[in-house]
Fold this protein.
Amino acid sequence: AQSVTQLDSHVSVSEGTPVLLRCNYSSSYSPSLFWYVQHPNKGLQLLLKYTSAATLVKGINGFEAEFKKSETSFHLTKPSAHMSDAAEYFCVVSRPPRLIFGTGTRLQVFP
Amino acid sequence: ETGVTQTPRHLVMGMTNKKSLKCEQHLGHNAMYWYKQSAKKPLELMFVYSLEERVENNSVPSRFSPECPNSSHLFLHLHTLQPEDSALYLCASSQERGSTEAFFGQGTRLTVV
């Protein structure tokens, strides 16, 4: 069965410092993995997706994620946080016909 | 804008009311979804439609009734709801069922009083 675990419910960083949001997955076959972002009172927006091509995936707004099969991880990173990055981030695995969502990580960015 | 539009954005209804949520997409997608997002809980898949046919009903109470009249429109009919049904209801669409990314609407914030 497919599932994802987001290891941190809250992450706080200072503006200009690196961001790391952690996600581990469980899948019985090669998974499709996604990161979505949700800003307050907004719907979810796709940041990036992994579908068994390159293991390092680049997304929008400077985010990227690396698929590591040996560690069953798909962590989201950004070299330098911006105030506008403050939001909730969801790691997602595809299990057709559904998308399985993690519980989310709330990112706070301090000036 | 993701191309998926939900109306209304906010809805307050009594437990005896009947209301409907509407979702519209013109992305040419053939799958549409209803999700429920409650505080402190993972996003819950409620219904999946593929080519206007309901292909999944995720043990949702019968007080929620979906309708998909065509591939561009999806409704969620609500009646005799409970306060615990208060949540953000998100509509999404995708090109194929679950195999590609989903595009989400901004959601309807539902409050049941």
